[in-house]
Design a protein that fits this description.
The complex is a heterodimer. Chain A is mainly β. Chain A contains no helices and 11 strands. Classes of the chains: A mainly beta, B mainly beta.
Chain lengths: 115, 115
């Protein structure tokens, strides 16, 4: 078990381009979460999966954002037509369904810079 | 809606001394969990300590302990014998049993430990 893995660690893109991030959770964890963290702020919830089902999406997740978790394993977060306001750290976390009160295991994040 | 407030943006402490980080929250839920997470510079977020709301006893983890005041909706973190490795951002977070483990975070506090 190598923990939660996120790739890439850093991404610089031009405004208007599409980007995709990947998250590989801990293998036995059936819940997977995406959060966004801007400089000097706490993480904000974006969306969450239980196995392959996307069960909740935040209003922060505009139409330009889409997340998938095929086969309930890894997950991808895609941002289309990036804007400068999308610049942030995107964090992935996973947990066991029965461990709601035990917090998550976080990945190291993907830092997105839109220029 | 649940809110978590960390009103101190920065704190500094001398190595080996004790420091207390403040957190207040607002909720109408009765069954919930509170957490403190640590985010070192450019490193992933890790769980420091957790508290179950139905337990009156304050949680402790080695040098870390909490002062949980349920009526006042206060959840402070005490770090004893501060070490240089404690330098990080610290986030207070909340979830309730019906929230699918979705965490609500405060804005965080930057703690610097001086040698």
């Amino acid at each position: 078990d190598t923990g939660v893995s996120q790739n890439p660690r850093h991404k610089i893109t031009k405004r208007g381009q599409n980007v995709t991030f990947r998250c590989d959770p801990i293998s036995e964890h059936n819940r997977l979460y995406w959060y966004r963290q801007t400089l000097g702020q706490g993480p904000e919830f974006l969306t969450y999966f239980q196995n392959e089902a996307q069960l909740e999406k935040s209003r922060l997740l505009s139409d330009r954002f889409s997340a998938e978790r095929p086969k309930g394993s890894f997950s991808t977060l895609e941002i289309q037509r990036t804007e400068q306001g999308d610049s942030a750290m995107y964090l992935c976390a996973s947990s066991l369904r029965t461990a709601a009160g035990y917090g998550y295991t976080f990945g190291s994040g993907t830092r997105l810079t839109v220029v | 809606a649940q809110t978590v407030t960390q009103s101190q943006p920065e704190m500094s402490v001398q190595e080996a001394e004790t420091v207390t980080l403040s957190c207040t929250y607002d909720t109408s839920e009765s069954n919930y969990y509170l957490f403190w997470y640590k985010q070192p510079p450019s490193r992933q977020m890790i769980l420091v300590i957790r508290q179950e709301a139905y337990k009156q006893q304050n949680a402790t983890e080695n040098r870390f302990s909490v002062n949980f005041q349920k009526a006042a909706k206060s959840f402070s973190l005490k770090i004893s014998d501060s070490q240089l490795g404690d330098t990080a951002m610290y986030f207070c977070a909340f979830t309730y049993t019906g929230a699918n483990s979705k965490l609500t975070f405060g804005k965080g506090i930057t703690l610097s430990v001086r040698p």
